[in-house]
Amino acid sequence: MTHSALNNLPFLSKLALPLMLTGLGSVAQATQEVEDELYFECEQLGWDLAELHKVPGVAIARVQGGKLLWSLGCGFANVATEEPVTGKTVFNIGSISKSIAAWGIMRLVEQGKFDLDKPAEGYIEGWRLPKSEFDSNEVTLRRLLSHTAGLSLHGYPGFDLGVKLPTTRESLEGATNGPGRVELAHKPGTEWKYSGGGFTIAQLMTEQATEKDFATYMREEVLMPLGMTSADYGWTEKVKALQAMPYDRAGKLVSGPCFSALAAAGLQLSVEDLARFALANMPKFQPKGSVALISPETVSEMHKPAPASEKYGLGFMVERVNGVLEVGHGGANEGWMADMVFAPELGDGIIILTNSTNGLRMHAPIKDAWRKALAKN
C-alpha cells in the first residue's frame, strides 16, 4: 500500500497507521506468503477507492485452485474506535444470502423432502398466496430459487436492530416494513423477475420441513459443516462482536438492518467465510476429503440458467464474460455492499465486502482487475 493513500484517507488517523499495517500483514500471513500480483493491486485499489468514494472499510479475498489464496482489509470496521478491517471482520452480505440459502434448500431436495417441480404450497401449512388470476400450483421451488415464479416483492428494507421481528409467515402476509405482502403478479414460468419474497416462501418451506427456525437449520447443515465459523443468519452476540459498523452515503452510522426474511437478505459473515463458500461451489478443485454437502451434479445444475431465465440459476447469477463462465451474486443493504464472483471452470474467484452504502462503487474496478489476472493465466 502507499503511504500517500493512507495519509489522505479522511477516515484514518495517522496514529492508527502502525495498527493498520500490522493488521493487514497478519491477514496475509494467516493464509500464506503472498506472491500474487493481484493481491497488491487489490490492496492499492482498496485504499484508493475507499478514499475516492468515502467508504470506511473494505475486505477482499481471492480463492484459487481449491484454497483461500489470500484475504486483506483496508480501512476501518469502526470509524469511532479506529478498529481495522481484516479478513475476519463480519459484514452483512445482503442478497448473497440467497446463494447460501439455496444450498441449504437443495440439501433438502437431495434428501427427498422437496421436489423442485411440484407446487411449493403443497409443502406449506397455514399459508397460501393471495388469490389472483394466475395458478399458484405453477409456483414451484425451482421457480422460487430462480426468480421465475411470477411473484411480487423485489427486496426488503429490513428493520432497525432491537425491533421485534415478524415471523416468516407474518412477513409473507405483509409485515415487511414497507413492501407489503408476497403476491402472484404474473404467470409463473414465463419470465425472470427478481423476488426476494420468493426466497421467503422457500424459507417457510424449510422451517416447516425441518421443524427448525431457518437460522438454526442453516447453521447446523451448511455454515458449520463448511467451516464458516463467523457466519450466522441473524445478529447473534458472536456476530456483533466481530462486525463492521454500517455507514450511509454521508458517512453516518446507521442501525441494522435486520430481517425476518433471512434467506433473502439476512446473512452476516467474514470475507474468509464467504471465500469458503465460493470454494465449495467448485468441487472439482476441492482437495480429497473436503466436505460435500450437496453433489457436484446439483452444484452444476444451480450454476446453469433456469428455464425462463437467461442469467440466473438456482440462487446464483450466471453469465459468460470474455468467454469465461462467471457465477456469483451481489448484495446491497443500507450500510453494506457485497459481491462474490467465481469462475468454476477455472477454480478462481474474488469476494468484496464493504461497510458503506457507497461501497458498490468500488466493486467494478476490483472485479475488472481480477478478470485481467484471469486472462493472464
Measured by DSSP, the beta-strand proportion falls in 15-25%
Q: How is the biggest beta sheet arranged?
A: 7 strands, antiparallel
Low-confidence stretches: 1-32
What is the number of helices? 13
Q: What is the molecular shape?
A: globular
State the secondary-structure class: alpha+beta
**Mind telling me the C-alpha Rg?**
20 Å
Number of DSSP E strands = 10
Order of strands, widest sheet: 3-2-1-10-9-8-7
- Give the helix level as a range of percent: 25-40%
Written as H for each helix and E for each strand, in order along the chain, the element string is: HHHEEEEHHHHHEHHEHHEEEEH
For the termini, the CA-CA separation is 24 Å
Mean pLDDT: 91
Q: What attributes does this structure have?
A:
377 residues; alpha+beta; seven-stranded antiparallel beta sheet; three-stranded antiparallel beta sheet; 10 strands; 35% helix; disordered N terminus
